[in-house]
Amino acid sequence: MANDRWIWDATTTLEALGAADVALWLWEPERDRLRITGASRALGLGPLAPECSSAAMRALAMPQDRALAEEVLRVQEPGSEIAVRLRMRAGGVCIWRGVWLEEGLRAAGVVAPETKFAASDVDKLTGLLDRKSFVAQARERLQTPGVHELVVADLDRLRRLNEALGHERADLVLAALGSRMAAAFPPGVLMARIGEDEFALLTPIRAISAAETLRKALEQPLRVAGFDIHPTLSIGAVEAMGGDEAPEAAELLRRAELAVESAKSNGRGGGAAYGRTMETDGLSRLALESDLRGAIGRGELTAYYQPIVRLSTGALSGFEALVRWKHPRRGLLTPDQFLPLCDEMGLMSELGALMMRQAAEQLAVWRNNHRAAGDLTVAVNLSTGEIDRPDLVSDVMRIRRDTGLPPGALKLEVTEGDVMRDPDRAAVILGNLREAGAALALDDFGTGFSSLSYLTRLPFDTLKIDRYFVRTMATNEGSAKIVTSVVKLGQDLALEVVAEGVENAQMAKALLAVGCDYGQGFGYAPALSPQEAEVYLNESYVDGAAPVKARG
To answer: Which parts of the sequence belong to the GGDEF domain (predicted)?
Structure first.
């Protein structure tokens, strides 16, 4: 039948997990409950299944691995990843991987034998660890007391090598450097290729500097395809005390890479040790600017999606698309970390067009694949000045034609400042956007100085209440009055009202009491990757409502 859907039943799911030697885990710290299902017996996790407390988890871990067990149990920010190697008393080494789904509420993931992940642990070109595995194992090594040194080496002029030799021959250079690095240090040293032209190692402090050993080994001439190559390295190093107070491995790696940037600023073949002065805005900004120039072309800037929920029913109404930068070394960067620089570099129009297309294409996929999602919308922020972009209206028409989205499914959010800079011109442009099929929202309403007389003339569908007023309405009488006034104004003008910054059920209830239509915020979910957003979408329709946290 057309409405039939094939669904994994519990028996089939368990059989599949058992056949793959994989178990699923869900950790709920507030309930002190760890739930495990799947191949728990084969993995030596039988005493923990189907559920246990954190104390049982620690007790069954090998004594030397109890600090790693804490990594699974320690509350982290939403989206934070977990990747640890953990030995249980009755089993071999297993990899626990997962992610925090909600702030302080749940983490979930898989556990499987270490051999299941072997292919992803190693960089295929050099045979060294890859970046993710290096960070995971460095985290474990740093639990050992004593002074550790983390060194990062960046091969100078790799781009020129690629141009002169071609990528295949340049890869031979990188492979040779990886072999030299492995031969230069004893087996106990942790070594990795962490980027296209970056190598890293972690070792206890030795009599001879690890950076000096690395430079001596890798800067020897080599001959590739008839060419004599003289590699030079920019090297950064940082020291840290191991033990319970050891810094996070990813943070230590960031510091070493910051030292590399400092070394590069002094020319090829430089070296630098990390110091607090490197945290200056100037140096970090310079490195970020260099990376940002090609980030759009490399597909590193992408849309994440924060749910928007109807407060009266809990039904999912749509998403707001929010840009994130998947930086190859710094991880996931939020807009405040790079949008000001985008603006200074004149990239906002290009970024705006990219976000609008990405969001529309993703929404079209969801609406086509999920019958219940047929009324979903997606909102995209227009950056300051983007309302004046000459091809904005034609872009909306082209995107709607390419994706097949109906009128109103794509919503553009405009700030008060953009409207009030030239209200008459804004009225014309907004009217054209409305005719092109875009819905329109006035973002952060209440923070600017817009004239209500102009508001009645502009073709907005939605008012968005700034998160500051929402978060402080319970403790600030002025904020509460502003929220109530904006909601009443929206009702009088037949506009939808969306409250930003909804952090818990109490806020949602207070907003609903004054007649607010919709809410979004961490109480429902942070900005989610497309894959996470689809899971959220599915769960919302299965459950009948999007859950809101009891407290935030």
So the answer is: 146-276
